Amino acid sequence: VGFTAEQTFGRPFVGDFITEDFRASVQDVLDKALRGEETANFQLPLVTAHGTRVEILLNATSRKDAEGRVIGVVGIGQDI
């Protein structure tokens, strides 16, 4: 969406790249993934480097270790 790696590393995804009206619902999707509950095809707006809004589909999947404990989240966004 127009950002360099340096412009995104270390910045909060929800707070800096999601429109204010969707921040709570996107945070909920990510929190659920951290609890092991996966979400498929969640539509949300993303703010580009130029400040425009684009719609994406988000799939959030839990990343688990060998014992089945959640150790992170893999999020895949698709421009729609």
List keywords for this structure.
single chain, 80 residues, alpha+beta, three-stranded antiparallel sheet
Write the layout of secondary structure elements.
Elements lengths: L4 H4 L4 H5 L5 H12 L4 E9 L5 E12 L5 E10 L1
Antiparallel strand pairs: 1-2, 2-3
Report on the structure:
- The protein has 80 residues and is an alpha+beta fold.
- Helices cover 26% and strands 39% of the residues.
- It has 3 helices and 3 strands, in the order H-H-H-E-E-E.
- A 3-stranded antiparallel β-sheet has the order 1-2-3, covered by helices on one side.
- A hairpin with a 5-residue loop joins strand 2 and strand 3.
- The chain starts with a helix and ends with a strand.
- The relative contact order is 0.20.
Low confidence ranges: none
Strand order of the main beta sheet, please? 1-2-3
Work out the helix count.
Answer: 3
User: How does the major sheet shape up?
Assistant: 3 strands, antiparallel
State the shape: globular
- Strand proportion: 35-45%
Taken in chain order, the helices and strands follow as HHHEEE
Q: What is the strand tally?
A: 3
Helix content: 25-40%
* Global mean pLDDT: 91
The whole-angstrom Rg is: 13 Å
- Counting helices, strands and paired strands, the structural category is alpha+beta
Span of the ends, CA to CA: 12 Å
